[in-house]
Each structure stands twice: as C-alpha cells, then as structure tokens.
Write a structure and sequence with these properties.
Number of strands of chain A: 11
Order of helices and strands of chain A: EHEEHEHEEEEHEEEH
CATH class of chain A: Alpha Beta
Strand order of the largest sheet of chain A: 2-1-3-4-11-10-9-6-7
Number of helices of chain A: 5
CATH class of one domain in chain B: Alpha Beta
Distance between the termini of chain A: 5 Å
Largest interface: A-B, 30 and 33 residues
Structural class of chain A: alpha/beta
Largest sheet of chain A: 9 strands, mixed
CATH superfamily of one domain in chain B: PurM-like C-terminal domain
Strand order of the largest sheet of chain B: 8-10-7-11-9-12-13
CATH topology of one domain in chain B: Phosphoribosyl-aminoimidazole Synthetase, Chain A, domain 2
Strand content of chain B: 15-25%
CATH topology of chain A: Rossmann fold
Shape of chain A: globular
Number of helices of chain B: 25
Largest sheet of chain B: 7 strands, mixed
Structural class of chain B: alpha+beta
Radius of gyration of chain A: 16 Å
CATH architecture of chain A: 3-Layer(aba) Sandwich
Strand content of chain A: 15-25%
Helix content of chain B: 25-40%
CATH architecture of one domain in chain B: Alpha-Beta Complex
CATH superfamily of chain A: Class I glutamine amidotransferase (GATase) domain
Radius of gyration of chain B: 26 Å
Helix content of chain A: 10-25%
Oligomer: heterodimer
Shape of chain B: globular
Chain lengths: ~230, ~725
Amino acid sequence: MKAAVIVFPGSNCDRDMMVGIEHSLGRKPEMVWHKETELPDVDFIAIPGGFSYGDYLRCGAMSAHSPIMQEVIKKANEGVRVLGVCNGFQILTEAGLLPGVLMRNAKLKFICKDAHLKVENAQTDFTANYTQGQAIRIPVAHHDGNYFAADDVLKGLEDNNQVAFRYCDEAGNVTEEANINGSRNNIAGVFNENKNVLGMMPHPERLCDPQLGGTDGKPLFDALVEALS
Amino acid sequence: MSEITMDVVKEHGLSEDEWKLCLEIMGREPNLNELGIFSVMWSEHCSYKSSKKWLKTLPTEAPWVICGPGENAGIIDIGDNQAIIFKMESHNHPSYIEPYQGAATGVGGILRDVFTMGARPICNLNALRFGEVDHEKTRHLVSGVVSGISGYGNCVGVPTVAGECEFHKSYNGNNLVNAMAVGLADSDKIFYSAAAGVGNPVVYFGSKTGRDGIHGATMASAEFTEDSEEKRPTVQVGDPFTEKLLIEATLELMETGSIVAIQDMGAAGLTSSSFEMASKGGVGVELELDQVPMREEGMTPYELMLSESQERMLVILKPGMEDIAKAVMDKWDLEFAVIGKLTDTGNMVLKWHGEVVGDLPIDPLALASPEYDRPWVKTERPAEVVANEVESNIGRIDALKTLIAHPNFASKRWIWEQYDHMVMNDTVGRPGGDSAVIRVHETNKGIAVTSDCTPRYCYQDPHEGGKQIVAETYRNITAVGAQPLAVTDNLNFGNPERPEIMGQIVGCIEGIGEACRALDYPIVSGNVSLYNETNGQGILPTPTLGAVGLIKDIDKCATVAFKEEGKAVVVLGETKGWLGASRYLEIICGREEGAPPMVDLAAELKTGNFVRAEILGGVDTCHDISDGGIAVAVAEMAMAGNIGCSIDIPANVDQAYAWLFGEDQGRYIVTVDADKADAFVIKAGEAGVTANIIGKTGGTEVVLGGEAVAVAELKNLHENWMPTYMAAGE
C-alpha cells in the first residue's frame, strides 16, 4: 500500500494518522501539504482531524476548496481509497465526496471520550477485518459530529449498505442513549456509493496501540494494507 | 503645559514614590508613551514587586535543572538529550470579566511561553477555582471558562490532560484560572531571550497588533470593584488557529538556524518583550513602530507598545537571515516585519515615521523596578480539633455518600470530556487519576503531570499548607510510579498591601521552600497573581503548584482502579485521624476550622521512595490519600475499577469517623496479593514505612467496618452532580 496523509495548516491529527498507519503498514506514509497541486502515486489517502483552516466558517468548508482537494476528488473518482476522520469527514462532505453534513453536537459541547461503534458493513476494504455487527471501542473528539442527511438521502445510504458504523452501547445495541452527538440513525461513519471513500467522526488512529489503552482501530488500517498490497 | 498630571500618573497605577523614581531615572518628565511603559513594566504582574523578596528564597537548583526561573519557562533534563519545558500562569482577572476569552488566552499565553524556548507543547493542565455553586455567576463562569479552554486547547491540538476544579465562597468575585503547559525539546536546541549583536534586526511575526488588551497587566494588578466589568475591552481576544500556525512556524524557524534570541509577546506586549530581551542581553534597541503590522488604522505608538494582542512573537535574527525567516512565515501565512535593530546605547528608542516619540534607559527601568518589603503579620496556627469533641450525628456510609457527591469531590468528567485529552496519541494515563501520564513520543519513557493546591489548609496555617501542597504533588506524581523532578508555582493571593494577606504570602512561600528543599524538588518557573479581591474580600490563599515527574518505563505505571478481587488493601503511612481543616469537618459537621494536618517531610520522602520502588517491582494499583481520607480514597479506587472492597476499622480506634475520614498526610493505598501482604508489610517496615493491611478487594460494595454501599450507587452520586448542576442553568 502506498499511503499519503493530507496536511492542512490547522490539521492536528496528522501525526497521529501517520503513526496509526505506520502501525499497520510498517513504514511512514507520505505527508502532503495542502498547497501542493499534485498528489504522489498512492492508493490510499487519509485526511486527518483538526481544525483545517480554523473552522471559523463551516467545518471543512474552506479546505474543500484548497488546491490539493481537487486532486483528492479526482483520485477518489478513479477508485483510490480515501479515509476522512473527524475534520477529514467534514471536509469530504463539503467536497461532495460523501453525502450529508455534520452539524453541531446535539448538546452543543465538544465531546472527547471512548465511544462504541457497531460495524454495519464488514464487506469493504476498510472494514473487512471486523465482523458484521461487531461492537468496537473508538474515541471521539469533536464539536460538530452530528450527522444529518435528508430522508431520501438517508434511505439511499441504508438501502445501499453505505452506513459504515453506528454509535451503540458496549454490547452493540444501537440506542438513543448511545447516540452521543445526535446523529440521524446513530450514524458515525458513511461510505460513498462505490465504498472506496469512508468518512467517520471517531478516530481509529487513536486506538492502535496497547499502551494507549486499546487496539480496536488497528483492524481498519490492517484491512487496507491487506487489500492494497 | 505638561500633559502628565498626577491624575494621569494615578490612572497608570504608579504610586507617588514610583513616580518620583520614574522622574529620577528619566532625568526629566516622561511623555505619555514613556509613562505608559513605566506603568506596565512596574505593574505587580510584570515586576513581582511585592513578592520578589520572598520568591528569591525558593530553591531553584538541582543537577537536572537546565533553566530555572527568569526565562519564559523552566527546563529540566529527562535524559537522552531530551528536556521538559513547563510553566503555570494565571489568567484570573480576565477570566472573571470575560470567561471564554480570558481562559482561552490564558491557554494561548502559557503555550507560547513553552514553545518560545524550542519545545513542542505535549500537554496542558488547568487549575480552576470558582465561587460557591449557589452563587448566581458561578455556572456562567464555569461554562465560559471551560468552553474557552476547550475551544483554544482543542484547536491547537495539544491534549488537556489534568487539572483541578474547586468551589468556595471566597472565589465568588474572583475566580482563578491557572493554566499550565508542558513541552518537549532537545536539550541542545533550547532558545533563550537575551538579545545580542548590535545591528541585528528585531523582527516581529505572528498576528497583527490591534487595540485589545491595552493595560491588561495593570488591570491584573488592581483589586476588583463594582465597575470592573466595564474593563471588558482590556481583555484580549484569542485566535487558536493562528496559535497553531505560530507553533509550527516558530518550531520551523528554529530549525533554520537564523535565531539569536526569541520571546513571545505576553503581558504588556511589545513593551515587556523588547525590554526583557534587551535588558538580559545588555543592549539597546531602536524600534520603528510604524513598521509594526497593525490590524486597524489610526493606532498610536502608545497603543502599539501596550497592546496585548495575542499570537505575536519577537525575535532577534542573525544578520542577513531575514529572507529565510520571511519564507517560513509566508508558508504559514503569518505577518512578518523587521521593526527595528539592536544598538549599543542601552536605551529603548521609539520612532514613529522617523520622529523619536520615546527614549528610555532600559536597565534602570527593567532591573531597578521597585521591590517592596511589605509589612506582614504571621497567621497564627489555630487550635487543634480533638476528634472526640467532634459531633458527628451521621453514619459513615451517609457521610461517604455526601462527600462523594459534594461539588468538591464529584467527578469533573463534565469538564475534561470537553477537552481533547488524547490528541497527539501519547496520553497513556487519561484524566481522572492521581497524575496524567504522557508518553515521550517514540520512546518508552513517560512524563507524569499534576496540579494541586489545598487553599483551606493554607488559610489556617500558611506555612504548613505550603508544605502540604508540595507534598501532595509529590505523592500524586509518585502514585503513578514517576520520580518527581520539579515544580512550577502559581501564587494566587489577595491584596499584598494588607499585612495579613502579606503574611499568607510569606508563610506559604516559606512552607513551599522548606518542602521543596527537603524533597530535592526545585521550583523552576512560576507566576504571581495578587489583588484577587473584590470589595475588600480576599480569596483563600491559593498557591497552586504544577509538577512534573519522569517514568523510565511506562509499562510499569500504577493507576487508582482496583483491578482484581481478593487483593489485600494496604495503607502506607501513619493514620491518626486528623480532622482539623478536613473536608469531613467542613462538609459533614459544617465547621471550616482547625489546624491543618502536619507534613513530616522525612517520612514523605521515605514513603515516596518505597512506593516508587514497589510500583517498579509490580504493584499496579496505587492512590494517594488526600481529601476525605481513607474512606474516599478506597471509594474512588472501587468506582474506577468497578470492584468493591471491604475495609476493617482497627479495634483500637476510638472514633471510626476520624480513622475513615481523617486527612493525615503522607499516605498511599496500594493493593498487593493477599498471600504476600504480610511480607509486604514487613518489607515496608524495614524501609522505615508504616504499613497496615486494612481490608481486601472484591464484591460490588464498599464496606466500611461492616456498613455497606453499592459501588454503582456511589458512582451514580459521584458522576451525576456536575452534569445535573450545569444542566440546571440551561
């Protein structure tokens, strides 16, 4: 697998993403500065979390129009795997690569904690190392993770198995109480139609290392490495 | 006619004597620009004029100290050519007037102090103190301060991993926001602030200068009155996105080899940074103030010198390196301007479109700032509270439940879940433990960090209270298995012109100094915040300490959570049942009084050394005993691990509540294998440490001498108070 991480001026999980990928890949991905107009030859692109341009407008709205994102959109349309985490997810929705938007958390506060996610589609290059319906523990850290899409869009997502993860309790029950940010249908992550683009609010790169208290994020990167090598 | 009347002098916060000294130094009457500079340079906030005499008595050296007080932050060596750079600083006054921005810029300012010296910030802490929970402003202040810290810290991408939050009526009109930043640097790549090289360019980078924060340092050096809220325009406004750019740009600039000296523009902005750099380097400076990047038109030299606009840096470059430095700032879209040069005159010359608008001698102003030996009276240690005479008409389980749900004990999860405490992927010990543990990136070493203060002890006996804070940080660092290395102090007090307040300052500093000396645990940086008074009501003396320790192998850490059933619960240190100034006496008996517990520093050292050795040897569960005594400590361990315990009260104890809730110092609780517990006690005894087996882990209840409460019920009480309280204001 040849991987790249896009770095915006306000990215702050770029190093975390690099380390997370390195745990599975065995080497560091390329770091690509947002002012670049060309991407190296890669088959996996990660857009990390952070506050890309300060997020004073809508989160991710400015980054979606940066030079490098035009390249990311092109590659995604060619089938390259693209993962957007947290602010990266927001950028992918703003760039039109994923449906829906991420609104302010229902309780209007930043939330940083471990969340439990139910794996809804284990048949993709991102999720093949999880089992269908498995509950995994992945941290969230966001202010704007409340996923919203119109009824017809939501129906399309559900019908086409595009929901990747839902917030659930420890036992895997998708409940109102487990829906930490008010997302529609408890959605924590979605695929595009072709399942080569995944956006998710939780941070799999934060739990790939037993010293940090868990490794439930690692199978995601392992699966990509296996699919792309 | 002179433009400087005595009223103008007074508005600038100078006393008559200080005005005379000012005239003497200048040899003439200063103009308004110059007076403004005197005003901020000699403010309590910048000059430490009331506390300097006493601060000098603190121990600041140890073989591992690379840089003590006097620079932007303190620096300690952690081996392998790595250094930890850290400091704590208050943003009390601005946070009361405008909680969100006041707290946010507090975080920004302390981060700059750390990365200015070459460190990448690796974590933040904050110690917060608010008025009583029923006070009409408290909720609003908690909400604003926490949002401000969250908004700023999360955006810059530095994890906020530890802190404190306490409520007391003495903070009703003066909340305290003490922020600490910790950074990691290569020991051979540290940057200092002493300017050097006549002719070298003085360069400004970061944000533009606006009119915010003018006279912030002077505001922070006066008591509050009813009209203080009109001072809102003196509160600075932060931009964490620019701070993030500034961190990256500064660290990148440092890599280019172009820097001679560097300093952030903090309190008193361009004035204090330029004066300090020049004074430390023994050089003069000529500034072309019209070259300063400005946010708005029509700004005057006076405003430019005194603005406290955030996210700005001042740097002396090597000659000819301007273009290299500018390229870095262009990459990060930051302002860059050459605004002057170093001279050999020893004076600060301020020019405005070629015309001299100020000319001040640097050293007399910076070094000869007033130092006061303010009159003080010693706080007399109150009488001891005799346990038999304490009326306690509430059962031990009810007392435990009351304490654990009290605002000063309840879980602060509501706060720390609003802080990104995991970003940077090195948070090994998350918030909620005795210390947070941060892995040193790409190593197996760790840093333990904590902040502590027990203001009620300091109020009753400043000297003993000062000792206790040092000892408590020492225990919190030790309890995770780390070697305590050094301390930063953030001394918050009332009006030093009142002798009883000055007595608190002197007592606390003396106590802190004594304990730091005994524990070989120097103070390497700090900050003083005085005049924390509203309408003559001072805060409890609150000398907050932040501390750092080193863990050589993070796979050998302890945490507070009970991990297994059937383990023996052992108390290390002596339990006599000290109730004076305890939380039990305050909350259960309604008595805020009595002499606080004594701290035996020799025992502290012995017990600490023993605990660390045992954690290295495999003990994985440890908690220091502090507020609420043994009962609260075991309850916290049970709640963290979802495992109960049964505690036996020794037969020879007269008052069970004193044994359970007393706050004798120098104690820890550990768990050990039941079959090895006797051997453990003997081993402790051989090391000169008192050890007593008090019970065992297991079950779903906390049982105290036969009376039980479910862990789940305790957890409910403990976790629910703060969300319920905050929700009631929405």
